[in-house]
Amino acid sequence: MKPEDARFIKAIIFVNSLVPLALLAWDAAHKNLGANPLEYVTRTTGMLTLIFLMLSLAVTPLRKMTGWNWLGMNRRVLGLYAFFYGSLHFLTYIWFDRFFNFKSAVGDVVQRPFIAVGFASFLIMIPLAITSTNKMVKRLGGKRWNRLHKAVYVAGILGALHYWMLVKSDTRLPLTFAAVLAVLLGYRIFSANRTTKTQTRPTIIPR
Ligand code: HEM
Fold first, then answer.
1. How far apart are the first and last CA of the chain?
2. Ligand 1 binding pocket includes 118 (Cβ within 6 Å)
3. φ and ψ at residue 71, rounded to 5 degrees
4. Nearest residue (CA) to ligand 1, atom 13
5. What is the Å distance from ligand 1's center to 54 Cα?
6. pLDDT one-digit tens code per residue, 37-78
7. Can you give the residue ranges of every domain in the chain?
């Protein structure tokens, strides 16, 4: 693929990722957020956080399986959108649910374990977003950066767990997210094992 085509796809992904926010803002402006607007916005932003986290985790397996290397350049933007929607999710909670009463938020974290799990997932995403720039990759060095960014797997697991914990009856959707996550992480374990095996195999030098 030509670099300008890859850049065009990146721009399409960037703009389209804002569409859910635009729709939410449109609904808010038209007072169309249902009987419980707080719940509506919290749930929508939470769902978007998880979806973008999954999309960013899907990039590497898809790139490796299809050989579409241009996919790789979209991983960062998808991850940053996960953080962006996660920040909106947190802001909705702390503003409209807790009215910036941080003491009450801490109490909630202690009383409702699903809040603590969601919070942990969000906290993990903060250093990942901060170190997502090229400058930070250079500053940390590739190896250290890669090691740090493996924390995104933990953020994904905690995000899916948070969702599963808060759903009271129909757990089909949270379990679907958990299954997709298991496939995405399982692929990584499988391909890491295969690489190690290939690397440790003795080299046969042809005579
Ligand atoms: C910053 C810390 C977080 C807090 C305080 C928080 C809090 C909440 C609350 C109060 C709800 C609504 C529960 C209900 O209506 O019964 C919710 C829903 C949700 N949150 Fe979070 N959350 C946090 C982080 C996250 C993160 C990091 C993710 C994803 C990785 C996430 C994904 C979700 C999902 C998927 C839902 C449910 C959406 C639905 O019902 O359709 N949350 N969260």
1. 40
2. yes
3. -60, -35
4. 166
5. 15
6. 999 999 999 999 999 999 999 999 999 999 999 999 999 999
7. 3-184
* CB 156, CB 177: distance < 8 Å: no
What Å distances lie between residue 143 and 57, 79, 138, CA to CA? 19, 19, 10
**69 touches 121 (CB < 8 A):** no
Atom of ligand 1 nearest to the CA of 121: 27
| 162 CA distance to ligand 1 middle (Å) | 7
pTM: 0.93
**CA-to-CA dists, residue 182 to 57, 151, 156, angstroms:** 11, 15, 10
Residue identifier of the C-alpha nearest atom 38 of ligand 1? 43
Catalogue the long-range contacts made by 6-11 (C-beta closer than 8 Å, 24 or more residues apart): 6/70, 6/73, 9/70, 9/74, 10/73, 10/74, 10/77
DSSP for residue 54: H
Tokens 């960013």, located at residue: 56
